[in-house]
Automatic annotation (TrEMBL):
Belongs to the TRAFAC class myosin-kinesin ATPase superfamily. Myosin family. Plant myosin class XI subfamily. SUPFAM superfamilies: P-loop containing nucleoside triphosphate hydrolases (SSF52540). Keywords: Actin-binding, ATP-binding, Calmodulin-binding, Coiled coil, Motor protein, Myosin, Nucleotide-binding, Repeat. This is IQ motif, EF-hand binding site. Residues 761-795, 856-932 form a coiled coil. Residues 955-966 have a biased composition (Basic and acidic residues). The keyword ATP-binding applies. GO terms for cellular component: cytoplasm; membrane; myosin complex. The lineage of its organism: Eukaryota, Viridiplantae, Streptophyta, Embryophyta, Tracheophyta. Residues 1041-1339 form the Dilute domain. Residues 946-994 are annotated as: Disordered. Residues 497-519 are annotated as: Actin-binding. InterPro entries: Dilute_dom (IPR002710), IQ_motif_EF-hand-BS (IPR000048), Kinesin_motor_dom_sf (IPR036961), Myosin_head_motor_dom-like (IPR001609), MyosinXI_CBD (IPR037975), MYSc_Myo11 (IPR036018), P-loop_NTPase (IPR027417).
Amino acid sequence: MEQYKGADFGELSPHPFAVADAAYRVMINEGISQSILVSGESGAGKTESTKLLMRYLAYMGGRAVSEGRTVEQQVLESNPVLEAFGNAKTVRNNNSSRFGKFVEIQFDKRGRISGAAIRTYLLERSRVCQVSDPERNYHCFYMLCAGPSEDVQRYKLGNPRTFHYLNQSNCYALDGVDDSKEYLATRRAMDIVGISSAEQDAIFRVVAAILHLGNIEFKKGKEIDSSEPKDEKSWFHLRTAAELFMCDAKALEDSLCKRIIVTRDETITKWLDPESAAVSRDALAKVVYSRLFDWIVDKINNSIGQDPDSKVLIGVLDIYGFESFKTNSFEQFCINLTNEKLQQHFNQHVFKMEQEEYTKEEINWSYIEFIDNQDVLDLIEKKPGGIIALLDEACMFPRSTHETFAQKLYQTFKNHKRFSKPKLSRTDFTISHYAGDVIYQTDLFLDKNKDYVVAEHQALLSESKCSFVSGLFPPSSEESSKSSKFSSIGSRFKQQLQALLETLSSTEPHYIRCVKPNNLLKPAIFENHNVLQQLRCGGVMEAIRISCAGYPTRKTFLEFVDRFGILAPDVLDGSSDEITACKRLLKKVELEGYQIGKTKVFLRAGQMAELDTRRSEVLGRSASIIQRKIRSHLSRKTFIMLRLSAIRIQAICRGELARKVYESMRREAASLRIQKCFRMFIARKAYKELCSSAICIQTGMRGMAARNELRFRRQTKAAIIIQSHCRKYLAHLHYTKLKKAAITTQCAWRGRVARRELRKLKMAARETGALQAAKNKLEKQVEELTWRLQLEKRMRADMEEAKTQENAKLQATLHEVQLQFKETKALLMKEREAAKKAAEQIPVIKEVPVVDQAMLDKLTSENEQLKGMVSKLEERIHETEKKYEEANKLSEERLKQALDAESAIIQLKTTMQRLEEKVSDMQSENQVLRQQSLLSPPVKRVAELPPAPVSQRLENGHHLSEESKSNESITETPTKQLGTEANDKLRRSRSQRQHESVDALIECVMKDNGFSQGKPVAAFTIYKCLLHWKSFEAERTNVFDRLIQMIGVAIENQENNELMAYWLSITSSLLFLLQKSLKAAGATTPQKALPTSLFGRMTMGFRSSPSSNKLAVAALSAVRQVEAKYPALLFKQQLAAYVEKIYGIIRDNLKKELGALLALCIQAPRASKGGVLRSGRSFGNNSASNHWQSIIDSLNSLLNTLKENHVPPIFIQKIYTQVFSYINVQLFNSLLLRRECCTFSNGEYVKSGLAELELWCCQAKEEYAGSSWEELKHIRQAVGFLVIHQKYRISYDEITNDLCPILSVQQLYRICTLYWDDNYNTRSVSPDVISSMRILMTEDSNNARSNSFLLDDNSSIPFSVDELSTTLQEKDFLDVKPAAELLENPAFEFLNE
């Protein structure tokens, strides 16, 4: 549409937009109303062309708003509504308009659409009841049947094949058309044109009622010539139609089957036969549909509205094309009459006006003949002898039939050249129209021409309870009085045509001829004969003939000279007369056959094209010259501009490319980081799920395997018991037989063997003495190293104490010197000021100044003395700092040496224990050899006898069982040699099996064995193994040292809180079990208090000998008490030291993590100071609370880690109590040291953070939080003081007693002097309160109390082993299961017990 806007007519390809644009331009420019007549036969595209015209006019007409909707939108959306109720499928067209339509679009002065009106002509009412194959009824019936299911059920509809008015044809659907979607589109169009939802429901209710009316069939009734509904189906449709019309079903039946005749004397009721009843039914359906269509048109017109102030309009006529079917009835007669009228209008406009212009211009021309159809119009509509007049006359007589009407036509027009009678028909007639001959059948002419409503139908529907139905049939005075005035459709239609032609005559017409290319309704197929016939019938061929015969091209003299003067410029020189110039110009170009009129030049066909060709050549040559000159100038100018632009664009593009590359690199790096984290999360999640699943499966499998193993062991044990008793009996029997024979032969043999073994024992004794000497030497070295380490520690402690005292003295001296320096400096300043004042007060009378030389010398000497003292103090301070640094370096070196010595002692002790084991093994072997030397078996058959079963078990505590001891006591029995050999073998492998068992235990414990019943499996497993091995009762063993070394290696990664929490849970549980199980064996001499540090306890244990140092511990009654030897008690002390160390690591890690966050939390961010809220709670909701949230997240993270590792609650309480104390110290000290933190807004900010901590304590519960909240008392009271309003009204007693009772005077004075209000500019406390604080501070300083206002952090260990014992219970370990990995090892079968 934008392309055709403002384009000259004929400049672009033919299109309805071009015609619409031309009409709109003429209307705007000349102020003349326009009309566009769209003509053509059915199916040629008249309706679609009309839509395009209305779209273009709506596009050009702007957006005038009416009742919330634009007028042009309502005009456009009226087309789908009218098409749904007025269009149907015919033989030639799938969407044929069965009514005529003339749309008047009104425009205001600015060319905007201001109103519109739609006029309709001759709706084909008979199509409602009669449809021929393959045509369809009106679209609305099929749309309603295909509508939503709720509408179909509401109106009791179904398939269109079940309705009589629709199933007369076999065509129910159109290709490419979805009736359900069209139904919804029609509904939306109704909304736009202003039809309400209730009115839409009423419209479709009436449409459904018409369908149900058509299914009512009649049969003969009980009375003569009477009728009634045929069957139950007919009764159903009758009741449904009455329900939809909202009238009485009985009254509807009577209106269809009866007629009431009113005479002068009485009223007669006449029954109708079944055929008459069916005719009455069809008449009711037709009149209801006709009234419904008229109502829709009136509703659209009223909704759109008309502009009474509009002066111009554009009318678009879309009316039926010329029709000639096999059966042509009254509708085709009226349609063809319309086309004859429009053809006459076309003839008058084109042909007559053409010849009138020739006459007016007085040019030589001959009259051009054209076909005039006035005689056909006279034949049809002339009064009183026209066909319409005769039809009205026949309708007025009750007994007239179509046969009498046909005979009347034959008699009247037998000599008319346009009228003829077919040879084979008695009632048909033929009219020769301008488009061809058409044969009409008069069978239904009379019925279709009658325009009346049956009185019974009128009375029935006017009394309907539905206001919409009753509104379609309003009662009229004429009908009530039974007036006999006759009204025919033909006459009314003729009047409408006359009014239409008068409207068209008052406008300037434009014509669009639609040509149908083929009758197959398919694209890209052109039937030449059919197209030529349409052009001939539409008068197009005649118009072309007239144009070629006359002068189709004409221009005024001025236009002609202005357009073609360039063909001969010399003709125009010196000539002012336009006519003369035109003649000379035409003579110059050598044209023939043209005419010169009064005001115009008339040219023959083709001459204008020849002149335009010559003009184009001249213009082309001139344009080439101009272009050649200008292009060079423009090219150079363009080149210069392009070069400058290119340089700028290159710079911009390179910068943009660099930014994009940098941005892409950033995005890529960010995406890689996100992917890495996401993949890590997914992998960790999958691993955890897989791990948990594997653990569940392993638990089940191991349980099943353990049960099978237990069953097998029970069976094996029972079998072994039986076998042992049997073998015991056999061995005893065999022993008694051989005893007597063995005794007699052993004595001689033993003597011989004893002498041989004596020599071997002497050699072994020499080796044992060497080992014993080496052992004694190592013990001396260990004692010497232990003594040196203890001495070094004592020297280090004394040096630190001396260094501390010396530092304190130096600091006190420095403080005193600084005070003296300040006082001296203040006195000096006062004296200088006094001297200045005295100098100013002395009047300047004498020229010689008066100076007190003695005072000046005294002050100068004192000043020099003070400077000397200050320099000496600075030197002493410098020397003290150097000594302090040297002492620190020395202490670090000695500490390193002490650590190395401790590690060396541990290694020496391990070596010594191994040597002791070797010595004990050699002693046992020596004893065995001595026993063997005393034995002399006389016979060699002893070796061949079956050995006795060995039931002894060597434990890890280096002690044999009672049975082995008893067997050793028997030395003179000959059979004892067998047991001695077995014990010899067991003792040889004892050390190796001991190390293997300990290695397996340590390897298992180093893994994450998890928890059982909330207790660590590793701790319980270690305890069970130590208890079974009787390691607690052993005086010499290296198991405890290896366990301590294992714990030290496990906690090397001190940054991992989860690992630290796991080992804290293991060590604390093991310490509890040892505390409950071990009891001292009873020491002979009391011991000193044990050191508290880890290395102190280890050194103390190494320095004391196992035989002389035994700790006295109160008797414990718990799980299973054993008498502990020194290694077990030492192991317990070392384990307690590691518990304290791991506790301190976890606490310090949390402090380190919170330290950086606390530095950010003490002061509110600057971005939020301008918008700080008035309450701490609401302030905490700001984005600045991220730092506090990070602190909460850190606390929650550690709490979850401790809970997951089942750390005893007492440790959790102590950790959080000390951490909250650390938070209190850091925040409070930062508040006192930084003035920018002592503000009102900052107090609100810190208060909101403390509220978050309080909420965390409540959520963590007292079991874990303990008294953590009470540790924040200093910062809470300080912040509470900062956020109090009107501080100047508060007294000192209120501050110290109510607000800040725990803060010292120095701290309060510091806060009050640093405070400033950045929100309200309020004052701090009153000067009286400040002076009171200053006086109290002076008294405190006189009393030699500490002047420090800062808090110190407490990093001590706040619990003891006894407190741990009170928090745990022995019954918690009853159901704990040992490590599953060790249960599979045969050496750890005792764990299953």
